[in-house]
Design goal:
The chain is an alpha+beta fold. It is about 30% helix and about 30% strand.
Length: about 200
């Protein structure tokens, strides 16, 4: 109750101050001369800066999504409660990698370095989200829908990926590996040769 009184008093004082100021104020024309050249300079600088930002953004986006001379490597990613399956339709015999996502039984998404890789994500049950924090890649996977994005890894290595969308009891264990190998090693692995990409 006391707070309402304080609020009302402050509001009344504010209204009184505004009305009194407007009533006692006499509007006179400004004696300052206009400066069209200076104003035009400001506008020119702002337009040039905005044009630079638009051009820089378009250039960076184009570099990020450059189309390669050869078609991208395609990997079909299927998420399910509570793990992942990575399928390679370009393999001589369609190859699928999966696991249980329990303990050390994590599936590994193998990709070649220096080549664009198109991931086609879907879900068998609920919404999941493929997320590789260290590489800054994240995309949601929905049932009855395919989301697509393309990535290119320039160096060999192995990074942990996980599900970023809460999907139930074992969401916290829904991890996988993404491993980038040389194109030669990738081709050997795709052909099913022993020891490759392990």
């Amino acid at each position: 109750m006391k707070q309402r009184h304080i609020f009302g008093d402050v509001l009344a004082l504010l209204g009184y101050a505004l009305l009194r100021r407007r009533a006692g104020r006499q509007v006179t024309a400004s004696e300052r001369s206009e400066r069209p050249r200076l104003e035009a300079y400001y506008v020119g600088v702002l337009v040039a800066f905005a044009a630079f930002l638009v051009a820089w953004t378009a250039w960076q986006n184009q570099r990020e999504h450059e189309s390669a001379a050869r078609p991208p490597v395609r990997v079909d990613v299927s998420s399910f409660l509570w793990c992942w399956a990575f399928s390679y339709p370009q393999a001589p015999e369609r190859r699928t990698v999966s696991g249980s996502c329990r303990g050390d039984d994590l599936p590994t998404l193998v990709v070649p370095t220096g080549h664009p890789v198109q991931l086609r994500l879907t879900s068998r049950d609920v919404i999941h989200s493929l997320w590789v924090p260290h590489l800054r890649y994240k995309m949601d996977a929905f049932p009855h829908h395919v989301n697509t994005f393309t990535l290119t890894l320039d160096r060999e290595g192995r990074w942990m990926g996980k599900c970023a969308e809460f999907c139930g009891q074992r969401h916290r264990t829904m991890h996988f590996w993404i491993k980038a190998v040389s194109p030669e090693e990738y081709d050997k692995w795709l052909q099913g040769q022993q020891g490759a990409a392990v």
